[in-house]
Amino acid sequence: MQLTQHADYSLRVLLYLGLHPGRRCTITEIAEAYGVNRNHMVKVVHKLSQAGWIKTVRGRSGGMSLALKPEQINIGAVTIGTEPHMNLLECFDPETNTCPISPVCVLKHGIFQARKAFLDTLNRYSLADVLIQPEATLALLHQAESVGDCSSHRGHVKP
Amino acid sequence: MQLTQHADYSLRVLLYLGLHPGRRCTITEIAEAYGVNRNHMVKVVHKLSQAGWIKTVRGRSGGMSLALKPEQINIGAVTIGTEPHMNLLECFDPETNTCPISPVCVLKHGIFQARKAFLDTLNRYSLADVLIQPEATLALLHQAESVGDCSSHRGHVKP
Question: CB distance A122–B111 less than 8 Å?
Answer without folding.
Answer: yes
